[in-house]
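I'd like us to work through together how a protein chain folds, taking it slowly. To get us started, please write out a protein record for me. Go ahead whenever you are ready, and we will take it from there:
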Amino acid sequence: MVRSTIIVRATDALPMAASVDDEQTEQALQEHKQQSKLIFRRITPNSEPRCSIESGPYTLHYLLADNVVYLTIADKSYPRKLAFSYLEELSKEFSVSYGPKVESVRKPYAFVGFDTFMSKTARLYQDTRAADTTGSSNLDKLNNELQDVTRIMTKNMEELLWRGDSLDRMSHLSTSLRSESEKYRKAARNINVQALIRQYAPFGAVALILIIVLWWRFS
C-alpha cells in the first residue's frame, strides 16, 4: 500500500506538501525518507519523468511534471501501475490548484493544505487486498483503466548510493543499449556455434563411422 508521499519543487528540492504520517510510519520510513532527499538531489531537467527505485521492503516511485516531483513510498509488493496512477491524480489536482504559484513560493510546505486531497486519494489506492466482496472496489475500476508501465525506469537504491548512477534519460538509454548489445552478442555467438555444428557435423559423423569400422576390423 501507499505509505507516505511528498511533493517538492524539482529545481531546488523545496518541499511544498507532504502526507501527515503517524509516529509508527515515521519511524518505519525514516531511512527511506532520507533516501528520498538523495533522489531529489539527483533529479535534473534531463531526468526520467517516471522512475521506481527499490529499497529493501519498499519502493520509492516518483513522477516529474512541470518542475514538480511527486514521490511516494509504497510496499515493494504494491503494483507499480497503481502507484503511478496515484501520483498522476496528485499531479493533476496540484497543477490546477497551485501550478501558477510553484515558481514563486519561498517557504517550505507552503501548500500544506493539499494533504487533505492526498489523504482522500490515498484511501482510494489502499492495499490491493482491500477489494470488497461485491467485486466492484475502487481498485478493480482503476486497474481496468491504467496505462502500461513497462517502460518506466527501474533502479535499485544501492545503484544510486554506491555506484553513483544517474536518473537521466541518456543514462537509462545507455544502460538499455548495453543490455540489448549483450543480448545480441550472445545470440550471435549461439548462431555461430550452430552454424559450425551444421557445417562440420557430417564430417564428424563420417570420421566416427570410419573409426568404428576400423576398430571392428582390426580388434
